[in-house]
Amino acid sequence: MMEKVGGENPTRINKYACACAIVASMISIIFGYDTGVMSGAMIFVKEEFKINDAKTEVLAGILNLCALVGSLCAGRTSDYIGRRYTIMTASLIFLCGSVLMGYGPSYAILLVGRCVAGVGVGFALMIAPVYSAEVSSPSSRGFLTSLPEVGISIGILLGYLSNYIFSGFSLRLGWRMMLGIAAVPSLFLAIGILKMPESPRWLIMKGRVGDAKKIMYKVSNDPQEAEFRLREIKQAVGIDENCDEDVVKIPDSVKSQGEGIWKELLLRPTPSLRWILIAGVGIHFFEHATGIEAVILYSHKIFDKAGVHDHKHQILATVGVGLTKFTFIVLSTLLIDKVGRRKLLLTSLTGMVVTLTGLGIFLTLAEHSGGKLVWALVLSIITTYAFVMFFNIGLGPVTWVYSAEIFPLKFRALGAGIGVAVNRLMNATVSMSFLSISAAITTGGAFFLFAGISVVALIFFYFFLPETKGKSLEEMEAVFTRRRRSENVNKEAEIGKC
């Protein structure tokens, strides 16, 4: 295992690798801001353009449908032009989307800007965790790969604060400032990303061993660790581990090649690759099927149903959601390499089942009382925050770490892209249907539905997601074949006894 290789303290976090992951996570802050700020901006957009609930749902969810397209494109793009330039591409797309939304003379133009930003979201969600995972050591990979999710939380909180600050402006200017200001960090990130190194794993996949070696020495704690990691990656790619040439021809069978890699992953996967695909897609499916986007995007509606009717107070209560999310994402980031992915997931889902059930009960009571039951109002807000807490201690950050680390190098960008596409599809489904579901079965009933889905998610994670803590990226296939191998060993032992 990597922790045993060289170095006085192989578990310490490499500062250069940490800096790379932090810069890559900046793109996630911009995405988080776009998500959070729309929660409050929708109140004023609806008021100015006089749009109904159906158009409001489309405005909220269209970003995620376009992100689905962006994530599928990002996988192939990052394999062709590299992880670094893919992050820069995402920044420029965000820049264009923010300018269009800030301009927003009509609902149609605003929708187009939201679509453009959505494509950038797809790129950002796929590439930031993959890049962070590929520059990290196994001992710190969970922490560094969680940073994009921390970035999303910071962005959502900044979006909520922006809602509060700009809500005092005139109707025409306020929401446009909220949406358009994201263009500024997008521009700076697109320029700053040029100072980042490329992923050493991507360089080796392209045969650029010499360039990869220079970067690997920077992102490792000592030469022994760097050499060990390089040998593992060379072996995985099909290069002689003792090869010292700067440029090497990579076998065609190992390269990521268009249609062939799609077929190999989706139509003819090996048993271990099929299990990895099910785990990677499943965790992304359940992240949003359990209802977090309903709380993030429509928290002002939830608080309105609970009895908080003033817009300013709704936005202020929503800031509390952002603070809770940020606090527990940071805590999870510190725990993920110590406690492990699996324990955090199971703890998270158990808490989500309890809090979603509680939220369903208290919202139902508050709604039926017309907001007169103060204790039901208070408990609705508390269980909302508690749900956000449990989600962000496990399922939120672990989803991105897990899906970025389990796929073999050849399939990593594509597999992560498919996972993000499913993630965005479910996000769009929830964000574009929550108001309609609430109208049909009440807001409380919608959260009972999410509680039931969370029970299914808990069962799925228990049986299908093995622990990956401390394993190198090149060991992941072995982790997902261990069960099969142990069954074979047990059968051989029984035969031996006979």
TrEMBL record:
<feature type="transmembrane region" description="Helical">
    <location>
        <begin position="21"/>
        <end position="44"/>
    </location>
</feature>
<keyword id="KW-0813">Transport</keyword>
<feature type="transmembrane region" description="Helical">
    <location>
        <begin position="315"/>
        <end position="336"/>
    </location>
</feature>
<keyword id="KW-0812">Transmembrane</keyword>
<dbReference type="InterPro" id="IPR003663">
    <property type="entry name" value="Sugar/inositol_transpt"/>
</dbReference>
<keyword id="KW-0769">Symport</keyword>
<feature type="transmembrane region" description="Helical">
    <location>
        <begin position="143"/>
        <end position="161"/>
    </location>
</feature>
<dbReference type="InterPro" id="IPR005828">
    <property type="entry name" value="MFS_sugar_transport-like"/>
</dbReference>
<dbReference type="GO" id="GO:0016020">
    <property type="term" value="C:membrane"/>
</dbReference>
<feature type="transmembrane region" description="Helical">
    <location>
        <begin position="173"/>
        <end position="194"/>
    </location>
</feature>
<feature type="transmembrane region" description="Helical">
    <location>
        <begin position="373"/>
        <end position="394"/>
    </location>
</feature>
<keyword id="KW-0472">Membrane</keyword>
<keyword id="KW-0762">Sugar transport</keyword>
<dbReference type="Pfam" id="PF00083">
    <property type="entry name" value="Sugar_tr"/>
</dbReference>
<dbReference type="GO" id="GO:0015293">
    <property type="term" value="F:symporter activity"/>
</dbReference>
<dbReference type="InterPro" id="IPR050814">
    <property type="entry name" value="Myo-inositol_Transporter"/>
</dbReference>
<dbReference type="InterPro" id="IPR005829">
    <property type="entry name" value="Sugar_transporter_CS"/>
</dbReference>
<feature type="transmembrane region" description="Helical">
    <location>
        <begin position="85"/>
        <end position="103"/>
    </location>
</feature>
<feature type="transmembrane region" description="Helical">
    <location>
        <begin position="109"/>
        <end position="131"/>
    </location>
</feature>
<comment type="similarity">
    <text>Belongs to the major facilitator superfamily. Sugar transporter (TC 2.A.1.1) family.</text>
</comment>
<dbReference type="InterPro" id="IPR020846">
    <property type="entry name" value="MFS_dom"/>
</dbReference>
<dbReference type="InterPro" id="IPR036259">
    <property type="entry name" value="MFS_trans_sf"/>
</dbReference>
<protein>
    <recommendedName>
        <fullName>Major facilitator superfamily (MFS) profile domain-containing protein</fullName>
    </recommendedName>
</protein>
<feature type="transmembrane region" description="Helical">
    <location>
        <begin position="56"/>
        <end position="73"/>
    </location>
</feature>
<keyword id="KW-1133">Transmembrane helix</keyword>
<feature type="domain" description="Major facilitator superfamily (MFS) profile">
    <location>
        <begin position="20"/>
        <end position="469"/>
    </location>
</feature>
<feature type="transmembrane region" description="Helical">
    <location>
        <begin position="348"/>
        <end position="366"/>
    </location>
</feature>
<feature type="transmembrane region" description="Helical">
    <location>
        <begin position="434"/>
        <end position="465"/>
    </location>
</feature>
<comment type="similarity">
    <text>Belongs to the major facilitator superfamily. Phosphate:H(+) symporter (TC 2.A.1.9) family.</text>
</comment>
